Amino acid sequence: MLQLRGAFTALITPMKESGDVDYEGFRRLVSFQIEEGIDGLVPLGTTGEAPTLDEDEEDKLIEIVMKEAKGKVPVIIGTGSNSTKHMVLYTERAKKMGADAALVVTPYYNKPNDSGLIRHFEAAAAVGIPIVVYNIASRTGRNIPTPLMEKIAAIPGIAGVKEASGDINQMGDVISAIAIPRRGTDKPFRVLSGDDAFTLPLSALGGDGVISVISNLVPRMVADLTRACLSGNFEAARELHYRLLPLVKAAFIETNPAPIKAAMNRAGLPAGPARLPLGPVSEASEALLRKTLEELGIKSR
């Protein structure tokens, strides 16, 4: 059974200065994540700039991550689209290439009604691979409230949710109404934070971990934080939470993933620039990132 519990990295896609994908850099990043003890990898999501990648680039990235990670940590591939037809094709590709699960975002721009959303996720689950729903209203314009999430979660094959609503009350409702009643069954429903700032509070409410942005840079620290939370060691978790909080704030000072890529470049990790339409971060943001890394003891190049 897929273990959707722990710290998962929403992988960036390293780019060269030319704007081409840095495949060797991606390979090194995947190896770095595994060596540092991350629990799972999530390529081709928002942080991976998937909307700007063409299918050939995506194919190569999937091949790399599956070769490097298969059998070591689970791989959840982003397959979302605002077209149900395209989402199904991407999800079928993920299954064919050996992914452990697919991350399917709420369709953006279309703002589908409840019946459309249910049918969208039914189509995803029909592919025959575990599906993690990605709820992020700030990107899609459409929140999935708890009563609707209950209906989606009842679809066979829906394994959990990446919760990035920003509403801790909603997160708690999803855990109490859906996740807790299914604990100990053969069809658990996992609730993962989609926001680094909520890793600790979500876990305290009974959540299952995080799909993290900052773990691109500090995977071991995020893994340690998540394990402390999930083991109930909240004294250690609070210490790590507050130590990482300045980085969390700095990583989202501008649109993700531009800040985390800038921080990784400073730390000597493969990242490169963000691809247009995202531009480089401002000088003020660069200065804050530099200061934040210094305070964490990460040397800048």
Short précis:
The chain has about 300 residues and is α/β, with parallel strands linked by helices. Helix content is about 45%, strand content about 10%. The chain has a single domain, classed as Aldolase class I (TIM Barrel).
Any overview of this molecule?
Helix content is 46%, strand content 12%. The strands form two sheets. It has a five-stranded parallel beta sheet with strand order 3-4-5-6-7. The chain has a three-stranded parallel beta sheet with strand order 2-1-8. It is globular. Helix 9 packs across helix 10 and helix 11 (258-267) crosses helix 12. Strand 1, helix 1 (23-35) and strand 2 form a beta-alpha-beta unit. It is α/β, with parallel strands linked by helices and 301 residues long. The chain has a single domain, classed as TIM Barrel, CATH 3.20.20. It starts with 5 loop residues before the first strand and ends in a 5-residue tail after the last helix.
End-to-end CA span: 42 Å
CATH architecture classification name = Alpha-Beta Barrel
CATH fold topology: TIM Barrel
Give the total of domains. Answer: 1
Strands ordered across the widest β-sheet: 3-4-5-6-7
How would you sum up the global shape? Answer: globular
The CATH class is Alpha Beta
What's the story with the biggest beta sheet?
5 strands, parallel
**String of helices and strands:** EHEHEHEHEHHEHEHEHHHH
| Helix content class | 40-55%
Count, helices:
12
Mean pLDDT across all amino acids: 97
**Structural class determined from secondary elements:** alpha/beta
Fraction in beta strands: 5-15%
CATH homologous superfamily (4th level) name: Aldolase class I
Q: How many strand units?
A: 8
Computed Rg: 18 Å
Low-confidence residue ranges? none
